[in-house]
Amino acid sequence: MTQTQAITRDGILDELRWRGAIAQTTDEDALRAALGAGPVTVYCGFDPTAPSLHFGNFVQLVALRRFQRAGHRVICLVGGSTGQIGDPKATAERVLKSREQTAHNVARIKDLVAPFLDFDGSTGVEHPAVLVDNLDWFAPLTALDFLRDVGKHFRVNQMIRKEAIAARLESQEGISYTEFSYQLLQAYDFLELYRSHGCTLQIGGSDQWGNLTAGVDLIHRVEGVAVHALTSPLLTDSSGTKFGKSEGNAIWLSADMTSPYAFYQYFLNIEDASVITLLRIFTDLSPEAIGDLEHQVTVEPYRRTAQRTLAEEMTRLVHGDDATDAVIAASEALFGRGDLRVLDPGTLADAVEELPGGGVVPGGTLTDALVAAGLAESRNAARRIVGEGAVSLNGERVADPEQVLVEGDFLGGVAAILRRGKKNLAAARRRDG
């Protein structure tokens, strides 16, 4: 696929706009002028309220990556302090993480972001990225100093207009002062980075608009200068639900929380209505390449070429070439275009986890396996579909419903892969006794 050409400093806003990655800006004309005048320092913060980031966060990581490649300075902030509180949800109070949990999550996220930004200049970027932890400046700050030097610049009547806070105030549960104060903490992050790094732009999701503008206002009040905020649209699933740690539908970037195979399959199964939007936001494909894929979605949607491209591009970016090649081979083999027996054992195990199925013991029959795996509602039905030639075992057609499953049929010692027809796959998982 054709990659887009290098982005210039003053062309970054046009690039983000075309990719659908801009929802709001404080003053686009002033920001455009600043970006064209020289390198701007931009930051985004990620709270370690979970041991991984999810692909909703990835919108901001990709945006930071684009800013860096365009010649701007980027800062990735991991919230070792704010992560102990958490941005208020509209629905309920967060369960606070312990200091030990937060520290563990901070370390994980620091490792996670390293491959996406250039922190040492090894790729030839003009300005290496900077990684900071806001615990470094909040830990020595006393509550009294914070209230005197920061709290005095905020007006409660403005703070309660924030959507999540307003919703909580209307609820029976209300909102704790702990979560209510979060906006001040994020605003102070921006002020600290302005003072220490000359940072003049903060980016985030559109649900962060109130927090971002709080920082803009604080810097203006304290330092007397104008800085900028920019948000991207929130990504939602097909039901309109926000992708996020709190919604129970997160697609994690860490391989031990969402396997590379499950990650690839998720994007492979994106609905036609969303695939072009995600290709624009996440990939470096050129307008011409994405236009071609959009045309294919219209004229040949059954080929799912756009989804395959999205799944491959995303998995390569997040998990690397080796893992991507392995999951593509597994996906093709599972759906009849490769040899299941030569697959990487780890990837095969991940793939089996994503399949429906049931447990069978070695020595059981194919009929037993089909019923246990849910591909036949009864033993008679299992015998019938085998007789019709509609069943395969590990990619090979079978004809005898009483065929016995031996140890070698359980790939990797884990499961036998059964198929009914072209699309119905299941795993007969090995169990003892």
Write the layout of secondary structure elements.
Blueprint: H1 12-18, E1 24-25, H2 28-37, E2 41-46, H3 58-69, E3 73-78, H4 99-113, E4 130-133, H5 135-138, H6 143-149, H7 156-159, H8 163-170, H9 177-180, H10 182-197, E5 201-205, H11 209-223, E6 228-232, H12 260-268, H13 272-282, H14 287-299, H15 305-319, H16 321-334, H17 345-353, E7 357-360, H18 366-372, H19 379-387, E8 391-393, E9 396-397, E10 415-420, E11 424-430
Parallel strand pairs: 2-3, 2-5, 3-4, 5-6, 7-11
Antiparallel strand pairs: 1-6, 8-9, 8-10, 10-11
Helix pairs in contact: 10-11, 12-15, 12-16, 13-14, 13-15, 15-16, 18-19
Structural class: alpha/beta
Superfamily (CATH H level) name of the largest domain = HUPs
SSE arrangement, N to C = HEHEHEHEHHHHHHEHEHHHHHHEHHEEEE
Beta-strand content: 5-15%
Radius of gyration: 26 Å
Q: What's the total count of β strands?
A: 11
Biggest β-sheet description: 6 strands, mixed
Figure out the total of helices.
Answer: 19
Write down the CATH class of the largest domain: Alpha Beta
The CATH architecture category of the largest domain equals 3-Layer(aba) Sandwich
Residue-averaged pLDDT: 91
Q: Major sheet: order of its strands? A: 1-6-5-2-3-4
Low-confidence runs of at least 5 consecutive residues? none
Principal-axis shape equals elongated
Q: How many domain units?
A: 3
Question: Can you characterise this structure?
Answer:
The chain has 19 helices and eleven strands. With 433 residues, the protein is of the alpha/beta class. The chain folds into three domains: 224 residues, HUPs (Rossmann fold), CATH 3.40.50; 84 residues, Tyrosyl-Transfer RNA Synthetase; 79 residues, Roll (Structural Genomics Hypothetical 15.5 Kd Protein In mrcA-pckA Intergenic Region, Chain A). Strands 1-6-5-2-3-4 form a six-stranded mixed β-sheet, with helices on both faces. A five-stranded mixed β-sheet has the order 7-11-10-8-9, covered by helices on one side. The mean pLDDT is 91.
